[in-house]
Amino acid sequence: EWERTGNTKYRDKIIAGMKSISALPNRLFTGPKALGFDPATGIITTECDLKLETTNHLMTIMGGFEGMNEMMRMIDLPEWRDAWL
């Protein structure tokens, strides 16, 4: 929606999600289960033990790689770059 209409509300939700994942202790690899999502703000949370870590992320092989590479060109967010790379 942000790319199509220029409505920054949607860009801000994307950035909120990127920042909240970056703030998790193990970033993309925090916990064994799905994360919570607040559709009003775009903030992503987890209720798992923050010490838990997983390396089984299908996101990285199911279009995530391509999507994130495109996203990093559109949104310059150093903490996300560190979390993703």
Task: Describe the 3D structure.
This protein has 4 helices and 2 strands; from the N terminus they run H-H-E-E-H-H. The chain has 85 residues and is mostly helical. Strand 1 (36-37) and strand 2 (44-45) form a beta hairpin. The two termini are 26 Å apart. The model has no long low-confidence stretch (mean pLDDT 85).
State the order of secondary-structure elements, H for helix, E for strand: HHEEHH
Helix proportion of residues, in percent? 40-55%
Quaternary structure state of the chains depicted: single chain
Shape, principal axes of CA atoms: globular
For the sheet with most strands, the description reads:
2 strands, antiparallel
> Which segments are poorly predicted (pLDDT under 50) over 5 or more consecutive residues?
none
Give the beta-strand count.
2
The number of distinct helices, counting runs of at least 4 residues, comes to 4
> Biggest sheet: strands side by side, in what order?
1-2
Roughly what fraction of the amino acids lie in strands? under 5%
Number of domains: 1
Structural class: mainly alpha
Terminal CA distance reads 26 Å
**What value does the Rg take, in angstroms?**
13 Å
Q: Averaging pLDDT over every residue, what do you get?
A: 85
Domain PcRGLX/YetA-like C-terminal alpha/alpha toroid: 1-85
Protein name: PcRGLX/YetA-like C-terminal alpha/alpha toroid domain-containing protein
Organism: Xanthomonas citri pv. citri
Pfam families: PcRGLX_3rd
